[in-house]
Design goal:
Shape: globular
Radius of gyration: 20 Å
Helix content: 55-70%
Strand content: under 5%
Mean pLDDT: 96
Low-confidence stretches: none
Oligomer: single chain
Largest sheet: 2 strands, antiparallel
Number of helices: 13
Number of strands: 4
Order of helices and strands: HHEEHHHEEHHHHHHHH
Structural class: mainly alpha
Strand order of the largest sheet: 1-2
Length: about 400
């Protein structure tokens, strides 16, 4: 009975994480122009469908290869396809105390696609669709699961004397996507009209109510993202995790709104929204280890970082239409390091392990992204032409429009 209860909870969380992809889609199309809506939706649908197939074919067994004792814990592969453990011809229910093999695959598969979705928002409105699709296949199919094995698969970061800790993926999911987004934005350059006379110009999104709905859907989905990462329906730990997740989100939003109002002299809803997301990303690495007070501090600092990072990237003239790099990379790094500063695991040794993990993923993600995107840039090209960008990717890349007028 306990396994059934745990498994049902994990399946509910799987559904919530799946629902997050609607939130990402709404957020991205809301913060960009309507002439590129079909393009963004196509990318998001491609990511979840292809990502799930790739995770089933190779990704799951790259991420959980079953490293042997004494292995370096950098790369392993348990074989192609899904092979459920059987006992006398039926599913081995002793696979885990919290869920079955099939639930494990599906829950982790929902996470896998998120890394490329983060990149989708950052490169919106000017990246060619086919190079993006190739990037998604390589990054989600191979890069993400190999890097995930370093911690969640029992690899070298898990084997440190003080193991690197990332409860639900501030680094393993969000920063992995964030580093790739940063590389992509640098290689692509800013959208036409974003920089005029050396100054950054605002390019408003076409549907802010839809973007707001997207953030609220993402917040709801995070109950599954973090709540499911308990890997059981343990009432105490699950409840605490949902409380710290929500409090950090609230603090991130409020503090981003306050600081942006002071700095920019206007009540900017988009900063409020990204502050909420920053708080969610920030708490994700240690949601099960923090007190509510810790969660407020982590979320509040994430909100401050959102405002600072957006301004910083503007000064560098890096064009990120949805603020994905500030949210997922900067707050992902912050949340990961915060595990060594706050909560039950706080210590100098833990902080150094967190720093080791952040540096390891930074190097690996930047190199992998440069290799994939750099190769695509010099072969197929990754940016659409001026005419296509000005008239919209929907017409030129897809031959249709999202709206009738």
């Amino acid at each position: 009975m306990e396994l059934s209860t745990n498994n049902v909870w994990m399946m509910i969380c799987t559904a919530l994480v799946f629902f997050m992809h609607m939130g990402f889609a709404f957020l991205e199309i809301g913060l960009t122009r309507k002439k590129n809506t079909i393009n963004i939706l196509f990318k998001n649908i491609f990511i979840i469908t292809t990502g799930l197939l790739l995770y089933g074919i190779v990704g799951f067994n790259l991420m959980y290869p079953g490293f042997t004792e004494g292995a370096l814990g950098v790369f392993g592969f348990a074989g192609f396809g899904l092979k459920a453990p059987l006992v006398e011809g039926t599913l081995d229910l002793a696979y885990s105390e919290g869920y079955t093999y099939w639930t494990d695959f599906l829950f982790q598969g929902m996470f896998a696609a998120t890394a490329a979705t983060i990149v989708s928002g950052a490169v919106a409105e000017r990246m060619k669709i086919f190079p993006f699709m190739i990037f998604t296949v390589l990054y989600v199919g191979f890069v993400y699961p190999i890097l995930g094995s370093w911690k969640w698969g029992g690899g070298f970061l898990q084997q440190l004397e003080t193991p690197f800790y990332d409860f639900a993926g501030s680094t393993l999911v969000h920063s992995v996507g964030g580093w790739a987004a940063l590389v992509a934005v640098i290689l692509l350059g800013a959208r036409i009209g974003k920089i005029k006379d050396g100054k950054v110009q605002a390019i408003p999104g076409h549907n802010i109510p839809l973007a707001t709905a997207g953030v609220l859907i993402l917040w709801l989905g995070w109950f599954g993202f973090n709540g499911g990462s308990v890997l059981s329906a343990d009432p105490e730990l699950t409840s605490l995790t949902l409380v710290t997740t929500s409090i950090a989100a609230a603090a991130g939003g409020v503090f981003a709104a306050i600081v942006s109002t002071i700095v920019f002299k206007n009540l900017d809803l988009t900063m409020f929204l990204n502050g909420i997301l920053g708080g969610l990303v920030g708490i994700t690495a240690g949601a099960d280890q923090m007190s509510p007070a810790d969660a407020v501090l982590i979320g509040a600092i994430a909100g401050l970082l959102i405002v600072a990072a957006v301004s910083f990237f503007d000064r560098l003239k890096l064009d990120d239409p949805v603020g994905a790099i500030a949210v997922h990379l900067i707050c992902g790094i912050w949340g990961t390091l915060a595990v060594g500063l706050f909560g039950a695991l706080a210590s100098l040794d833990q902080f150094l392990s967190q720093l080791t993990g952040v540096a390891s993923y930074a190097i690996a993600c930047v190199l992998a992204s440069l290799l994939i995107l750099g190769t695509l840039k010099v072969t197929l090209g990754i940016r659409v032409g001026e005419k296509e960008e000005l008239e919209g990717l929907d017409i030129h890349e897809h031959g249709m429009s999202a709206y009738s007028n």
